[in-house]
Design a protein that fits this description.
- With about 375 residues, this protein is α/β, with parallel strands linked by helices.
- The chain contains twelve helices and 14 strands.
- The protein has helices spanning about 10-20, 50-60, 65-75, 80-95, 170-180, 230-240, 240-250, 280-295, 315-330, 340-350, 355-360, 370-375; strands at about 25, 95-105, 105-110, 125-130, 135, 140, 145-150, 150-160, 190-195, 200-205, 250-260, 265-275, 335, 380-384.
- Helix 2 (about 50-60) crosses helix 3 (about 65-75) and helix 8 (about 280-295) packs across helix 9.
- It is globular.
């Protein structure tokens, strides 16, 4: 492993990552032709041996053949649709890889974890720069790729602010080029980050330029100084292992909606991958923490109030809050109360379009009697 030095924007990013317990490797060194190869082909985007090692470590009681089947299932995600591949992988990452087997005449499943979300430092964190990928007869080298257990979950595209044409917009366009010519890298991508050394923004693989936003706070209590480079704040605030894994697990949603083509009348299901902004992340986590305290036997049952401004994404904040509560309170019953029918419909649609994160389908009560019927459960359910 090479020591991390500081001389330009890329090395600055790597040095900041090194302070957060990320290990470092130089792309050419771990290439198939390098001194310490970590993959067999320049076409490979997953460090398969690292993935195998992590899967074996995290699932010690599962047979080796089932572990290898899980690895192969991750490596063999192929379809012409990049976002479909990305969603397929995300589900395997969050919900574990299920490998069926027979036991006493019944079909069961091994559930194989790819990442330890509960204990962040129980995973392998590796930052790699100048990682060459050759696909479609084109050789591309994203500036920095962040691997967790051999999986390339984050891509950073960095531009030099000293050059006139090396803007943050150019970094965004470079990500679009990568998606077109080395698409398999984005099967496994959770977050894209673009920076010109001064500005720095994060977005999902499906996000347009306007949906890439900065990460403005290290802890959610106050915004960082405007004299601190946005790249530094984002790395420290978003890419530390605990926060990054929390975001990947609880603050990404694949929102589905139906859209009709007015010219043909054909209705299609459109998927958009959405990543929480920094204010949503911190607000939801504080709300969840307060709710857990309030719901204890000695709690006062008062979770609190979250104030929002127009356009701040309150509907999605409610989805993220609900999704995290479902895990934190072990399947609670959640009732969403609104004071207008149109708002109830709008919120319900947002929740209904985010079923993967919520791990269940919400229900919309039609009357008082319907509410009573829907609430006649021991626990569980999201009711509007």
């Amino acid at each position: 492993m090479k020591p991390i030095t500081e001389s330009h924007i890329e090395e600055f990013a790597l040095e900041e990552l090194g302070k957060l317990e990320w290990c470092y490797a130089y792309g050419p060194d771990i290439s198939p032709e390098g001194s310490n190869p970590a993959r067999s082909s320049f076409e490979d985007v997953v460090l398969a041996d690292k993935l195998r090692s992590a899967v074996s470590k995290l699932n010690p009681h599962i047979p080796a053949d089932a572990l290898e089947q899980a690895v192969q299932k991750v490596l063999r995600i192929y379809s012409p649709d990049l976002l479909h591949n990305n969603e397929t992988f995300h589900e395997l990452l969050i919900e574990k890889v299920r490998i069926p087997y027979q036991h006493d005449g019944f079909e069961r499943s091994h559930e194989i974890a790819l990442v330890d979300f509960e204990n962040p430092l129980n995973n392998d964190f590796l930052a790699v720069n100048q990682f060459s990928i050759i696909q479609n007869n084109q050789n591309k080298r994203p500036d920095v790729i962040l691997f967790i257990n051999g999986l390339p979950l984050v891509v950073l595209e960095l531009k030099n602010p000293a050059k006139d044409n090396a803007t943050i917009d150019a970094a965004f366009e470079q990500i679009q080029t990568y998606k077109a010519v080395i698409p398999s890298l984005f099967t496994y991508n959770e977050i894209c980050i673009i920076s010109d050394g001064l500005e720095c923004k994060a977005g999902s693989v499906s996000a347009g330029k306007g949906r890439f936003v900065p990460w403005k706070s290290l802890d959610g209590n106050k915004d960082s100084s405007r004299f601190t480079p946005q790249l530094e704040t984002l790395i420290k605030g978003m890419l530390n292992p605990a926060t990054l894994l929390d975001i990947i697990r609880n603050f990404i949603v694949f929102e589905k909606s139906r859209k009709e083509d007015p010219s043909t009348g054909i209705t299609q299901v459109v998927t958009v991958k959405k990543l929480a902004a920094y204010h949503q992340y911190y607000a939801v986590n504080k709300a969840v923490a307060q709710t857990l305290i309030a719901s204890q036997p000695t709690g006062d049952r008062k979770g609190g109030v979250v104030w929002h401004t127009t356009g701040s994404g309150k509907s999605l904040s409610m989805v993220f809050f609900t999704g995290k509560l479902v895990l934190s309170l072990h399947n609670p019953t959640i009732v969403v109360i609104t004071d207008r029918n149109d708002l109830d419909d709008q919120l319900f649609d947002t929740f209904a379009n985010s079923k993967q994160l919520l791990r269940q389908e919400p229900r919309q009560a039609e009357s008082r009697d319907d509410i009573k019927k829907l609430l006649k459960v021991a626990s569980g359910g999201i009711i509007f």
